[in-house]
Structure formats: structure tokens, C-alpha cells
Sequence to fold (131 residues):
Amino acid sequence: MNTKTIELATPQSRIAAFLTDVAISILTLGIGWIIWSAYAWAKGTTPGHQVLGHKIINVDTNLPLSWGQMAMRELLFKGAVAGILSSITYGIFSFADAGLMFREDRRAIHDWMSSSIVIQESKNSTGKIRF
Fold:
């Protein structure tokens, strides 16, 4: 049996993926990010995570999240729930969510809610952007 070692994405690379998503959203007025996301979610990733070689997998099965699971993770958990809780707590929730990525399991609150974990699928040593 060929077992593959799973390498977790570092907190720094996850923050870079988030900032990449933000930059893509700004540069494309949100439309490009939405179109790219619709494609990337089917592969269990987001545009920012895809650029950095990350995959978002189910913590129990080690399989990439489906398009529906990704939509729920990104729109419901990271979008609506996190947005409401951050508004109520004056942004403290967002810092707590990001801060949990520095734990040993590197799972943020939205990862717990969606039973996901972010892995480093491949190294991007060439410096080329992945699509």
C-alpha cells in the first residue's frame, strides 16, 4: 500500500492565500474571483490556495472537499457566520479564527465547522503561478 504523507499548509502560506484571494477580488472587481472560485471549488481549493499549491481536504477521509462543501465552507462559514460573529465582537472573532491556524493541527474555526484541513499539495519552487 502506498501511503502519502500529508503536509499541512503553514499559517503564513494560508494567510498569503487569503491575501491572494483578496487581491484577485480587487483586481477583477469580484467577478473574476467568482468565476475562478466556481472552477477551483470543484477541485477542493480556492483561487488563492490554488496559486500557492494548497488543497482543502476532509479531515476524516483525506479527500478534497466537493464543490458543495467548498461553497458551504467559503460562503456560509467564512462568509456569513464569520462576518456576523466578527461584527458582533468588533473583529475579535476574525483574529481568533486566524490565530488558531498557529496551533499544531493548523485548523481555524471555519476549518472545524467544515471538517476540513488545508494541506500543501505541491511545492511551488519555480515561482510560477498555478492555475
